[in-house]
Amino acid sequence: MSWEIVIGLEVHAQLATRSKIFSGSSTTYGAEPNTQASLVDLGFPGVLPVLNEEAVRMAVLFGLAVNATIDQRSIFARKNYFYPDLPKGYQISQFESPIVAGGEITIDVGEDQKQTKTIHLTRAHLEEDAGKSMHEEFDKHTGIDLNRAGIPLLEIVSEPDMRSAREAVAYLKKIHALVQYLGICDGNMQEGSFRCDANVSIRPSGQKELGTRTELKNLNSFRFIERAINVEVERHIDVIESGNAIIQQTRLYDPDKNQTRAMRSKEEANDYRYFPDPDLLPVVIEDALIEQLRQQLPELPDARRTRYENELGLSSYDAEVLTNSKSHSDYFEALCATIGDQTKLCANWVIGELSAALNKDGLDPQQSNVSPDALAGLLARIVDNTVSGSMAKDVFVAMWQGEGSADDVIDAKGLRQISDPEAIATLIKQVMGNHPDQLGQYRDGKDKLFGFFVGKVMQAAGGKANPAQVNQLLKTLLNENS
Amino acid sequence: MSLTREQVEKIATLARVELAADVTTEVTENMSRIIDFFDTLNDVDTDGVAPMAHPLDMTQRLRADEVSEHNERDKFQQSSAQTEGGLYLVPKVIE
């Protein structure tokens, strides 16, 4: 039997506000436990939540960016459940009338990534994050840190439109890039600012109704998401093909064992008894605000990618890789602006050496050891033939290690490329004089020896001769008088 | 009666409320009467009437995104049963 995989994703994006969604507590990551938890966040009696204007604006920006409908009269609801990291006994969320309804995202699919597919969004709503539970630190207790309680979240829910783990990751990467372009979320998956749950089910190919789904929780890297979905799909197939039924439940992915395990039975936990929160009035979003935010929309990833292809002449691959991450793309633009008219060279360096160095040190382009200005200084030396492309890579490594500007490193290491034709001709003549046998054979028609002479000249030049010039001059001189 | 005893017991469990066996019958009757009272609304034609989310005919005022709270952890933790290293301690929760 052939099975069709059905995946829907729920993304929780922490909105990049300064203060929490319903209180004036700071949202800075990594503070001492409970030092950013006010009476509202702690759920003390008698307090009232007051909605953060910026969280509303960010949610509307997202809705506009995905061509969704903005609900101009949005309602907050209480989602009731008991857990120690939720001191009120309910999470303020949205149920009916979420702020963003519908919308869509386009992803690249197919072997060559040349086809596109539209993934529909169900909704995106505002809610508050819960606190953090520490289960490991104490023998008989769980420690609770409520700094995270009340950080604004935008929960972005997709339709079950994805048909493979690969499509799910492509969709997630699109959302991940989008929220960063919009400046509404920093996208940091390690710190939990961007989290994902996946609803996975299978059905016989061609069947209309959906199979029973399981929900995979808190998948915190793109790689794990793909692996977790694949391993869960295999489990579904095994269970069903051995004559059993999938139970609707929440499961956790264990990356070490590469397997999923049941977390809790959803039946009881699912009874959230939503009702409109009497502490919060309906939120009205005026047309004027929507129009103002529409004007503020920055250039979005898809538009930027098209511009890179059409106006900068980059390949589809380069354009995609660069625009997948706003910070890489911004670095690339700063680099191009400094050096001018070298877009392909700039793209190669950002995608190649720079990204490799950043990945190795786990840095973001904004934290790069080599600034766009400094890198432009190096690329300028490639363009004016001071250094070759391969020497430039060594210079870059030195610059990365803090050894100064491109010119400093080139001078200190004596890497300046020999591009004076007379100096190169002198070297060539020396090499020819030292290898009369090979010269004779070459002139008798053994063309393959050309490479031998190139190697000898480069060796004589300590690797510093301009390769293009060596080739050209060598051709001329070897064939002279022959 | 519009509510069953089982429904009331389930609601009590979800709300973490302990109902003594001898009051469950009375609570079920009382809650049923409240629910039945709301049935009166079924006599009214509500076509075209939007569900009311809040009794006040007002809209939510929004707050500027500014940090206005400072760290008062020591004060707040005085009303907690147990704390350690700045964390609130609760009986072990096992997932």
What does this structure look like?
The complex is a heterodimer of chains A (482) and B (95). The longest helix of chain A has 20 residues, at 222-241. Chain A is built from 17 helices and 17 strands. Chain A has helices spanning 39-42, 53-65, 165-181, 222-241, 266-269, 287-296, 301-310, 316-323, 326-339, 343-361, 372-383, 389-400, 406-412, 421-434, 436-443, 449-460, 467-479; strands at residues 3-14, 69-70, 73-74, 77-80, 90-93, 100-101, 104-109, 115-128, 132-134, 141-145, 152-158, 194-204, 214-217, 249-254, 259-265, 275-276, 283-284. In chain A, α9 (326-339) crosses α11 and α14 (421-434) crosses α16. Chain B has 95 residues and is mainly α. Chain B has a domain at 1-44: Glu-tRNAGln amidotransferase C subunit, N-terminal domain (Histone, subunit A, Orthogonal Bundle), CATH 1.10.20.60. Chain B has helices spanning 5-14, 21-38, 73-77; strands at residues 83-84, 87-91. Chain B has a two-stranded antiparallel sheet. In chain B, a hairpin with a 2-residue loop joins β1 (83-84) and β2 (87-91). The longest helix of chain B is centred in the N-terminal third of the chain and has 18 residues, at 21-38. Chain B starts with a helix and ends with a strand. β10 of chain A pairs antiparallel with β2 (87-91) of chain B.
Brief summary of the model shown:
The complex is a heterodimer of chains A (482) and B (95). With 482 residues, chain A is α+β, with helices and mostly antiparallel strands.
Which strand order does the major sheet of chain B show? 1-2
**Taking Cα atoms only, what radius of gyration of chain B do you get, to the nearest Å?**
22 Å
The number of distinct β-strands of chain A equals: 17
Give the structural class of chain A. Answer: alpha+beta
- Please provide the ordered H/E string of secondary-structure elements of chain B: HHHEE
| Main sheet summary of chain B | 2 strands, antiparallel
Strand content of chain A: 15-25%
What would the CATH topology of one domain in chain B be? Histone, subunit A
Mean pLDDT of chain A: 92
Oligomer: heterodimer
Q: Helix amount of chain A, in percent?
A: 40-55%
**What do we call the CATH homologous superfamily of one domain in chain B?**
Glu-tRNAGln amidotransferase C subunit, N-terminal domain
Measured distance between first and last alpha carbons of chain B: 38 Å
Give the overall shape of chain B. flat
Domain count of chain A: the total is 3
Stretches of chain B where pLDDT is under 50 for at least 5 consecutive residues are none
Biggest interface, chains and residue tallies: A-B, 56 and 38 residues
Query: What does the main sheet of chain A amount to?
Result: 10 strands, mixed
Query: What structural class is derived from the secondary structure elements of chain B?
Result: mainly alpha
Q: Helix share of residues of chain B?
A: 25-40%
Alpha carbon gap, first and last residue of chain A: 74 Å
